[in-house]
């Protein structure tokens, strides 16, 4: 009799634990140390899965006013636009001429059709880069990201013209 109850109990426990996973909004709020409760979800997509959990996620939130802009402008972890060369390559792609040859990087944050997830392009606002690849360096330093064989980072972009926040993650 004990054996017959083991598998149903195990299944119930697994289902209960699966329901405890934090929402994308909760994950973004925690990672960015922000209150995102006023945002309305415009896009929530996540391709993470499989054995190693590789994938891309994108959460896009719209805010009713520019209150979040004031918070970000006062936080030194957020950099004002324009994006750095590296971040531009990750989000939109970038071609560089070097020693007579063209080298193209990115875009890396794309949808299933290969189009950038950040659309339309953000021109004014703030961004925050968090490198999750290694704990041995400054997680805000994006300078060596394109030199690696794998990418594990979080990028948040706030569009001050539209009061929209993109929270993006990439794990390869």
Q: State the separation between the terminal residues, measured CA to CA.
A: 46 Å
Give the neighbour order of strands across the main sheet: 1-2-8-7-6-3
How would you characterize the largest beta sheet? 6 strands, antiparallel
Order of helices and strands: HHEEHEHEEEEE
The poorly predicted ranges are 9-19
| Percent in helix | 10-25%
Q: What percentage of the residues does DSSP assign to strands (E)?
A: 25-35%
Give the number of helices: 4
Overall shape: globular
| Mean pLDDT across residues | 82
Radius of gyration: 19 Å
How many DSSP-defined strands?
A: 8
Estimated structural class: alpha+beta
List the helices and strands and how they pair.
Elements lengths: L1 H17 L5 H9 L7 E7 L8 E8 L4 H8 L4 E2 L4 H7 L2 E5 L2 E5 L19 E7 L20 E8 L4 E8 L1
Antiparallel strand pairs: 1-2, 2-8, 3-6, 4-5, 6-7, 7-8
Task: Summarize it.
The protein is α+β, with helices and mostly antiparallel strands and 172 residues long. It contains four helices and eight strands.
How would you describe the overall organization of this protein?
By secondary structure, the protein is an alpha+beta fold. The chain has helices spanning 2-18, 24-32, 67-74, 85-91; strands spanning 40-46, 55-62, 79-80, 94-98, 101-105, 125-131, 152-159, 164-171. The strands form two sheets. Strands 1-2-8-7-6-3 form a six-stranded antiparallel beta sheet, with helices on one face. A hairpin with an 8-residue loop joins strand 1 (40-46) and strand 2 (55-62). It starts with a helix and ends with a strand.
